[in-house]
Amino acid sequence: MSANLIVKEFLGAFTPFESQLEGEAGPITFINTFVLPSTEAVEPFLAHWNDDGAYMKSQYGMLSAQLHRSLGHGSNVFVNVAIWESLDAFRRAFQNPDFQRTFSEFPKGTHMYPLVLTKVAVPGVCVN
């Protein structure tokens, strides 16, 4: 991807991120956790994420997105939660070479932990 952005598998996950992009599903939830190398990286990260978010928002199939920040003084963890109409729509936007090139604009040493998920129904608790 990029020397600045280090893509890591979610701790203990059996399915690598690239494998999560295979097949067909929809709608999907994309949860991406970013761990920044320092608190000085927060402003450059937010500026870059704003550009990436605008790009993704302009893509077919993106339904919503929300960036979250962990609580506490000096927090360096951000989580993006995005809902997409389908895995195919997300895959096309994410794998676009122009989008992939923007990864070099993240603050150097940023770690990214991406997950692609689908809803699970649990009777009496949540619906699919």
Automatic annotation (TrEMBL):
<dbReference type="InterPro" id="IPR007138">
    <property type="entry name" value="ABM_dom"/>
</dbReference>
<dbReference type="InterPro" id="IPR011008">
    <property type="entry name" value="Dimeric_a/b-barrel"/>
</dbReference>
<feature type="domain" description="ABM">
    <location>
        <begin position="37"/>
        <end position="102"/>
    </location>
</feature>
<dbReference type="Pfam" id="PF03992">
    <property type="entry name" value="ABM"/>
</dbReference>
<protein>
    <recommendedName>
        <fullName>ABM domain-containing protein</fullName>
    </recommendedName>
</protein>
